[in-house]
Structure formats: structure tokens, C-alpha cells
Amino acid sequence: MSWNARALDVLAAGPPTPLIDFPVPAPGIRLLLKDESAQPTGSLRHRHARALFRQAILDGLVAQGTTVVEATGGNAAVAQAWFARRLGLPYIVVMPGERSEARARAVEALGGECRFVTPPLAIYDAAREIDGHFLDQFGRAAPHDLGEELFGQVSPDWVVTGAGTGATSATLGHWLRSHHPADTDGPVPSAAGRASGAVGRDGPGTAENRSSGTLEGSAPGGGGWRCRVAVADPENSAYFPGWALDTPDYVTGMPSRIEGIGRPRIEPGFRPDLVDLVIPVPDAASVAAARRIRDVTGLPVGGSSGTALWAALELVERMRARGESGTVVSLIGDAADRHLATYHNDAWAAGKGLDLGPHLAELRRRTAVHPSG
Ligand SMILES: Cc1ncc(COP(=O)(O)O)c(C=O)c1O
């Protein structure tokens, strides 16, 4: 067997991550959290890494012995170092800022090399200068396997995700538009699925889908299962204003406080045409919702999982108010003990000027008390 063939075997899809029932006091409405922290490297970035390596090998850009390079300070580095080790490839990641043992440890434990660069924005040029293949998760955001897996598990009315590179929302939107689940074992259409334009401008802080006809056009007979993709977007991110104003070059120039999602500009991997709704979420709401997930599941999730949950609860609330039934899936992007010192820490939140109180009260109202706490 050639190295390439063996490598593609290593990069085959892993076991599905679990769906966790999240209690909501809304009869007939189910809220499920898709727990990507169950991936071998603890985050949704595991799927991105697999897809990036796969695409690079198929395109002939990575072969046996190629040094693989990335520029990132986050979970992507750990996931990529994990795959590089399994493929026997040297791996170098350029991280922003001064050397941090905490950030380097996980990558180095997997045999990767970390190089720290200042100013932070210089990481991309520094990565391009290294002799090897720059994976470039933002420039080449490859579709991954979440759609195949998730829609094999459940047929929801909504899936809610954050957007960093844009790959996850694009993957889900693309899968939904290129498959016909109602032809196979799709569920009886729910009220939300049947109703055309069920989401409009009446919800606070949301905008109507500018391309809502696209998916309906692909559904058999226009009356089958219909699932929509909502992107939950944190403060300072360009995705919500850029999407709502139909301005693809919208720039905020501001970093997101919610790790992994929210970008100062619209990245090339974000596909507004494959997204049905973008919901802006205040950072205090994201942090409060991350805590609510931890209260209920015990998982020390990152802020991005809270952003998605808050937006998912807005959709649940709207469905409930309209007397609709159905299923909403919200992604858990990652969980790690390091988040205990930030999103789950009162002093950190106060230092950032985040007033969680009103949001925590709202979350208690919108989510039922879990029996085991
Ligand atoms: C909840 C959630 N959704 C989505 C993403 C990923 O977004 P993308 O695929 O756009 O990079 C993340 C990444 O951290 C996340 O935590």
C-alpha cells in the first residue's frame, strides 16, 4: 500500500460524537447539544484538521516527509499535531505572542514544534516563510464531515453553530442543499420545517434569510424535511453585520473575545449563501450560557459553545411562542480545564466588564433544571 493510501486510511472519519439532550421547558421541542469535545483532541477543530490534511494529500501538496505548517494559537494546532504524528509528518505551528508553556505543551507533547511570533498578525507571513506546506485553515477552509455524521444521527429543524473559518456552517449548508433526506428516512415534517419563511424579522437582533428560497428549491416537492443553518455570532465579529447588510468585505477590525469564533473580517470560507440566519449574541450571554452548559452537563466548555446555545435558545423560544414542535441542535465546540480560569471564573468575567447576572436569570427561565444538577 502506498504512503498516500495509508494516509487516507488514517484520515478516515472517526466514531460519531454524542448528542446530549438539553432540557428546555417547551413541550414538543427538543434541544440537543452535539458534543465535539468528545473528539480525540477535544474540539471541533479535529474535523477541520482531518479535512485539511486529506485535501492537501489529494491535491498532491503533502506527501511522505512533507513538513506541515500552520499559523494559529488555538485548538487547531493540537488537532493538526495529532494527525501529523499519526501520519509521521513533521509539524510546525506559528503562534501569536510571547512563548507560553501552557499553549506549547499540548503540541510539543504530540511531537510538534511551536514558534512564537510578535506582533500577533505576523504569524501568517512567518508561516508562509517556513519550508513546508502551509495548511492555512482560513485561506483553504475545507469542508469537513460533520454534515454526513450529524444528519445520519438526527433530522433537526435547525442546527446552530459559530463561525471562525466558516467551514462548519458551509459544510452543513452544503450538505443540506445537496441531499434529499425526505426521500429516505426523514421525519414527518414539523411545523417549523413546513412553514416557508418561518423565521422573519420579528425576533430581536436577527435578520431574515436573504436566500431562503435556495434550500426549499432543493427539497423534493418542496414539502419534505427542511433543516436550516443558523450562525451564532459574538460581539466585534464581521459575520453578522456583513451578512445582514449583504456586504462581503465588511470589516470590524476588532478581535473576538470568544475563542474560536467571530472574526474581524469575513473569511473566504464563510458562505453566506449556505446560511439561513445569523444571530448576534452579546459576549456576556455567551459566557453565561457556557456556564449553563457546564451546570447541566459537567463539561467545562469554551465560550463559543455558549454563543451557540444562546442563539439556539432564541430559536426554541420562537418555536414555542408559535406553537411549533421540532428539534434544534447546537454545537459544543470544545471543553477544556483551561476554560475554568476564564469563561467559568467570576474574576475573569468582572475584569472583562461582563455582567452575567441578567443573562444567567434568562437562562434559568429558558432551560429546565437538570435533575442531577
Ligand atoms: C461552537 C462552535 N461552532 C463552530 C466553530 C468553528 O467554526 P468554523 O468551522 O467556522 O471555523 C467552533 C470553533 O471553535 C465552535 O466552537
TrEMBL record:
The keyword Isomerase does not apply. Residues 14-182 form the Tryptophan synthase beta chain-like PALP domain. Its cofactor is pyridoxal 5'-phosphate. Gene3D superfamilies: 3.40.50.1100. InterPro entries: Cys_Synth/Cystath_Beta-Synth (IPR050214), TrpB-like_PALP (IPR001926), TrpB-like_PALP_sf (IPR036052). It comes from the Bacteria. Residues 186-201 have a biased composition (Low complexity). Keywords: Pyridoxal phosphate. Pfam families: PALP (PF00291). SUPFAM superfamilies: Tryptophan synthase beta subunit-like PLP-dependent enzymes. Residues 177-224 are annotated as: Disordered. One of its GO terms (biological process) is alpha-amino acid metabolic process. The keyword Cell cycle does not apply. PANTHER family: CYSTATHIONINE BETA-SYNTHASE. This is Cysteine synthase A. It comes from Nonomuraea polychroma.
